[in-house]
Specification:
Layout lengths: L3 E16 L8 E13 L1 E2 L4 E8 L5 E13 L2 E13 L5 E7 L11 E9 L6 E9 L1
Antiparallel strand pairs: 1-2, 1-9, 2-4, 3-5, 4-5, 5-6, 6-7, 7-8, 8-9
Length: 136
């Protein structure tokens, strides 16, 4: 099945983080609820994202989460869920890869499959992403 590559940007509209384990000692766990706004190939005004975060040091760690996207992919409307995994580095750089959760597409996005990712650098207000997908 042919794959389409699309790109765009997203911004963090809201980030709320809370400690799951105490602030003392490492490693420690945290939980974050995030709202993102996507433009470009993926268009969504306000996604819903939930992350589990493991801080290995004060500035490094890993995360995993799910993001519900309601909007459009290259003009096709519907909803889908992205499963995300990533890491963050001492300089604030975040590397993340994501995959469409199989069976999560609705509307014109039913059967959506795909993978993508982004690299965020500390201080950026817009984050570029790449998404390779097909509609089955």
């Amino acid at each position: 099945m042919p794959t389409t590559t699309t790109t765009g940007h997203f911004t963090f509209a809201d980030w709320k983080e809370s400690a799951v384990t105490g602030e003392d000692g490492l490693p420690r766990l945290a939980h974050a609820t995030v709202t993102n706004a996507f433009s470009g190939g993926i268009e969504a005004e306000a996604t819903t994202c939930d992350y589990a975060i493991a801080y290995l040091t004060g500035t490094t760690g890993t995360f995993a989460g799910m993001e519900l996207v309601a909007g459009r992919v290259d003009g096709h409307s519907g909803t889908f869920v992205l499963e995300e995994r990533g890491r963050f580095e001492p300089d604030g750089t975040v590397h993340c890869s994501f995959e469409v959760l199989e069976g999560s597409g609705t509307g014109e996005l039913t059967g959506l499959c795909g993978t993508g990712g982004f690299v965020y650098r500390h201080g950026e207000t817009k984050v570029a992403y790449t998404f390779e997908y097909h509609l089955g």
